[in-house]
Specification:
alpha+beta; 9-stranded antiparallel sheet; elongated; about 25% strand; 7-stranded antiparallel sheet; 32 strands; Lipocalin; Aminopeptidase
Length: about 725
């Protein structure tokens, strides 16, 4: 025995090599020096006493001991005792046990617990060392299906707070121990072992944990006495993990606790058919059920007589919960089957990437969010001096939405930016109101373009390439839209936002990206850097995209680390993909995460009352005596007919008769130039409607003049009015 020396393990290279050598023939985390180093560092950080047994100066034994407090007792747990195979039966193990007993006494522990390997020699060894309290091991046999009524709230082990179980009784597993977690929970330290034990928290507060690394060891903490529900829940939980059995040690009240459930000795053909080693739990059990639900949802929303394609991706904490692709999409006249790499036009989702480009440039001091947009776009009129880059990001700039006007003014020779530069005043003072505006992000896209040479290339170099979004591509000048992407790539983007990790990003990027915008009156703006906030604590972010035949919804739950992506393609299909996306999202979050059902978020934001400037400028100043005229009450329709010119969009319109209605047409366009003037709306307003690929917009139109003549009319598009002065 004089040749045997027991000491505390260190992280020296010689000690680590010695321990790795002991485990050289084992499939353990210690048999490679790199893994051994990481393991020992973790154990020492957690407070383990790690033994190194030397024989003639060579490390030949490795032991791990930890003091573990339960609510009703304090004991030492022996989690590891390994002797070099060439030095066994030399008394080294018994010397290590004796040293461990002294360690227990120093820590005022009267009990040492271990769970030996199911090996006859191990059992004989521990008996010789004085371990007398034998605990018979049993198993609960799995059913062929789970108990259908037992769907739970799932918790990742590394997120379980001390408060979750500190007041609960450790009712199941007397004498056994969760060797990786229990002591760490009671010391308020999360485990860092990659082989976490999955856990669930039931509605009544019962906490159930299964240590899959020990073959499905079951532990329960609860203040409830409803044993039957606990066991049904545990069996359903084990079923979802692919386990064949749940194991437990002898309990004094075993007959009462397990009444009605099949229990048998572990020694009887005990096998684990499949074990998932997972860091964070995701409920495998319900995936098939959800996919079936999604199929029904899609069938409800689509017309099978039309072409259709969609991609759905759901991820939790970087792990895929669901990938679902179906149908076909048309790209450049060719139809393709939808798969993980099929690009979809994502419309307004491009705003998030434009906003990220702006944030990168701001963090690198290449622009200032509080600069006037005229610093970067000096062609804009003087009114833009009071509009900052920050106002544009938050859609509080008050700039009129020429993006919609461009579709109405298809006869105009101007492009979008030229229309911006002709605007003489905003609809509202900046910072007073929020209104969804493509115009703001068109301006931002051009600011990035001017500062970098190409905003699509800048986004590729600084965002898409670092995140390996290989199937994402900008086209034209990204602004209000101009981006194609895939469900797989957009999940990578969400993970970047959730984890706040963009390779090569400047310091402070995500603090800026999630910083709130404040109205002039001090209230919070509902919009951020290219996304909506959907709740008061700003945890849920989302954006809706719509581009002709393509629609999508992307949503991220920041705290839950949950990402939901729904992309659709529906050429001429008479349905509403956003409603389908909402149904899919509610199916996922309701089934898996017990989160509140989401309402029609698109309608909540897009259908809110618009904040329109109450003061008319420009033409009102030129015609100070002009009064609003009502064609419905004034039957002298002839005064309305004639040609009108709008300077800001450089377009002529003719108002011509059409029986009891008016017709509005582009000048000199013949029959192809007509835009219908509709009957009066419910609000007793005359409406102009477009024709085109988007299916048409309706715009309120108002005439101004006196009893004898009309001076001008206004057309409201988005926020603000555009003026058309009568020419004859």
């Amino acid at each position: 025995m004089d040749k045997i020396k027991i000491r505390e393990m260190t992280t020296s290279e010689s000690d680590l090599k010695g321990i790795a050598n002991i485990h050289r023939d084992c499939e353990d985390p210690w048999n490679e020096i790199e893994e051994c180093t990481a393991w020992v560092a973790k154990r020492l950080e957690r407070g383990f006493y790690i033994q190194a047994a030397e024989f003639d100066g060579k490390i030949v034994g490795h032991g791990e001991w930890i003091v573990s407090d339960e609510p009703d007792r304090k004991f030492v747990y022996l989690g590891m005792l390994q002797i070099d195979k060439d030095y066994q039966r030399k008394g080294i193990g018994r010397v290590m046990i004796a040293d461990g007993i002294e360690y227990a006494k120093k820590n005022n522990c009267q009990l040492i617990i271990t769970i030996p390997d199911m090996d006859e020699n191990a059992d004989i060894f521990y008996r010789k060392c004085g371990f007398k309290d034998e605990r018979k091991s049993h198993s609960l046999k799995m059913r062929t299906e789970p108990y259908k009524d037992y769907i739970f709230e799932y918790m990742a082990i590394d997120k379980v707070p001390f408060s979750a179980i500190k007041e609960k009784k450790y009712i199941f597993g007397k004498g056994q121990l969760c060797s990786r977690h229990m002591w760490e929970v009671y010391n308020e330290k999360p485990s860092t072992d990659d082989r976490f034990a999955p856990a669930i928290l039931l509605p009544d507060g019962t906490y159930i944990q299964i240590d899959v690394t020990h073959g499905g060891y079951l532990m329960i903490w609860s203040n409830s006495a409803n044993y039957s529900d606990m066991i049904k829940s545990a069996l359903s939980f084990g079923y979802s993990l692919g386990l064949a059995h749940l194991n437990f040690d002898y309990l004094e009240d075993e007959e009462t606790f397990f009444a009605g459930f099949e229990v048998y000795d572990k020694e009887q053909n005990f096998e684990i058919e499949q074990v998932y080693y997972i860091k964070s739990l995701y409920p495998i059990l319900f995936m098939k059920k959800i996919e079936e639900k999604i199929e029904k949802i899609v069938s409800k929303h689509i017309n099978p007589d039309y072409e259709w394609g969609y991609a759905v991706s759901v991820e939790l904490e970087g792990k895929s919960l669901l990938k679902h692709y179906s149908g076909n999409v048309e790209i450049d006249g060719v139809w393709y089957s939808v798969n993980a790499n099929t690009p979809f036009d994502v419309g307004s989702v491009a705003k998030q990437f434009v906003a990220c480009c702006i944030a990168i440039l701001a963090c690198e001091k290449r622009l200032n969010l509080d600069d006037s947009v005229r610093v970067y776009l000096p062609e804009m009129k003087e009114y833009a001096d009071k509009i900052t880059v920050r106002h544009c990001i938050s859609m509080t700039s008050g700039v009129r939405n020429v993006y919609l006007m461009k579709y109405l003014m298809s006869n105009s020779p101007l492009d979008e930016m030229e229309m911006f530069f002709r605007q003489e005043q905003p609809a509202n003072d900046a910072g007073n109101f929020w209104s969804y505006s493509e115009a703001c992000y068109i301006l931002l896209g051009h600011i990035v373009e001017r500062l970098t040479g190409s905003n699509t290339q800048f986004a590729k170099q600084r965002i898409f390439d670092p995140l390996e979004m290989s199937n994402t591509q900008g086209y034209d000048v990204m602004g209000g839209g101009g981006l194609t992407s895939t469900a797989e790539d957009l999940v990578k983007w969400h993970n970047c936002l959730i984890d706040r990790n963009l390779p090569g990003a400047p310091d402070g990027l995500f603090d800026m990206f999630f910083s709130p915008f404040i109205f002039n009156n001090g209230e919070l703006c509902p919009y951020g850097f290219g996304f909506f906030y959907d709740d008061s604590d700003r945890n849920i972010i989302w954006q809706y995209g719509d581009m002709t035949d393509w629609q999508c919804v992307i949503r991220a739950y920041l705290k839950e680390k949950l990402s939901v992506i729904v992309l659709t393609h529906y050429p001429k299909n008479p349905c509403e993909p956003v409603e389908m996306a909402l149904d899919i999202e509610n199916a996922v979050i309701g089934e898996l995460f017990n989160l509140p059902k989401q309402n029609n978020y698109k309608a909540a934001y897009y259908n809110r009352p618009r904040q329109i400037s109450k003061t008319r400028k420009a033409e009102h100043h030129k015609f100070p005596n002009a009064q609003k005229q009502n064609p419905q009450s004034n039957h002298d329709f002839n005064k309305y007919f004639g040609r009108y010119y709008g300077y800001e969009v450089d377009t002529y319109f003719d108002i011509v008769p059409d029986g009891s209605r008016f017709q509005m047409k582009y000048a000199d366009k013949g029959e192809d130039g007509y835009i219908n003037l509709l009957d009066f709306s419910d609000e007793n307003r005359l409406m102009a409607s477009t024709r085109g690929d988007w299916g048409g917009f309706c715009f309120p139109i108002e005439f101004y003049g006196d009893e004898d003549k009309i001076d001008f009319f206004t057309l409201q598009a988005g926020i603000g009015h555009f003026y058309f002065v009568k020419q004859n």
